[in-house]
Structures are given as structure tokens and as C-alpha cells.
Amino acid sequence: MYDLLYPRVMATNYRRLGGLKDQAEDATQDVFFRLVKYTDFSQVRTPEQFLGYLKTVCENVCAERFRELTKQTVGLEEGLTEELEEKLTPANPEQLALTEDFWRKLEAELPPEEFLLLQLLAEGYKHQEIANRMEWSYPQTGVRVFRLRAKVRNLLKGWGLPSL
């Protein structure tokens, strides 16, 4: 099972964690640990059902890791510990500039509420967490996320960029 699913799980985690390879590898191990420890395989009826469950486990593990990463701050005067330095991926200045430019464009195009929703999604918040924070119902949050994704896809298309 591990050999068959490792590439899929690793790719999913790598994308969800924004290209942080070390974090994705750790998350992949955590996903398999959770599968072995918590999955009742007798409840899984079809391969599609299992893959959907696997994707959900990946999303949950990555959301937890992403929240942990965003809580870690280091003052410039402190320097980095060896452990923190290993967790960080060297920043590519060109990529950072493109990302900042991309976020500025999105902020200019989207109403403040939609931009905040996009930020919450990018930070890994689940729909229920967003619903609670924005004081929306869960179904209303799902609809807004769906519409926002369509809007962002159209903006990307208009800017000549590939869809996410």
C-alpha cells in the first residue's frame, strides 16, 4: 500500500504545503501513520471512497502543519536554530516578488471580504472555521468559496496565467 500510494500522498502534501519538501515528507509519513492507526478499512467499499478519505487525511495533516509553521516566528536578531533552519526552504527572490505582485493584484481586484476569504483559504482554514470567523452559515461559506474560486480562475485567465 505504501509503495503504491506514496507518490500520490507526497504530491498532494507538497502542493498543499506550498512546495516545502521537508514538511511534505514529514506530512506524508504522518498521513500513513494515521491511516494505519485510525482507519477502519472494513468501512471502505470502493477505491474511490478510499482515495477520497486519503485526500481528506492529507488535507487535515497539511492544515495542521501549516498552522504550526505560521505560528513560528523568529526575530532577526535571534538568528535561526538548526532545527528551524532545516524546516525552511531557501527563498527564491524572483518567486517571492512574483508572489507579492500576484497577491497585490488579487487584493486590487477582489472586494475586501472576498480577499479575506482567499487569505483564510490560503492559510489552510477549513470551511467550518471560516464560517465561524466570518459569521456565515456552513453552506453559505461553501457557495462563497465556489464563487471565489471561479472568480480567481477567470482573473488568472485574464492575466494569461494558468489556473490553479
With helices defined by DSSP (H or I, 4 residues minimum), what is the helix count?
A: 8
Task: Characterize the main sheet.
Answer: none
What would you call the shape? globular
Mean pLDDT figure: 84
Task: Name the features.
164 residues, 2 domains, 74% helix, globular, mainly alpha, Arc Repressor Mutant, subunit A
Care to give the gist of this entry?
The protein has 164 residues and is mainly alpha-helical. It has helices spanning 2-16, 21-38, 47-71, 82-87, 93-109, 112-122, 127-134, 138-158. The model has no long low-confidence stretch (mean pLDDT 84).
Question: What does this protein look like?
Answer:
The chain is mainly alpha-helical and 164 residues long. 13% of the residues are buried. The chain has 8 helices and no strands. Helices cover 74% and strands 0% of the residues. The chain has 2 domains: 2-86, no CATH class; 91-158, Arc Repressor Mutant, subunit A.
Topology of this structure?
Elements: H1 2-16, H2 21-38, H3 47-71, H4 82-87, H5 93-109, H6 112-122, H7 127-134, H8 138-158
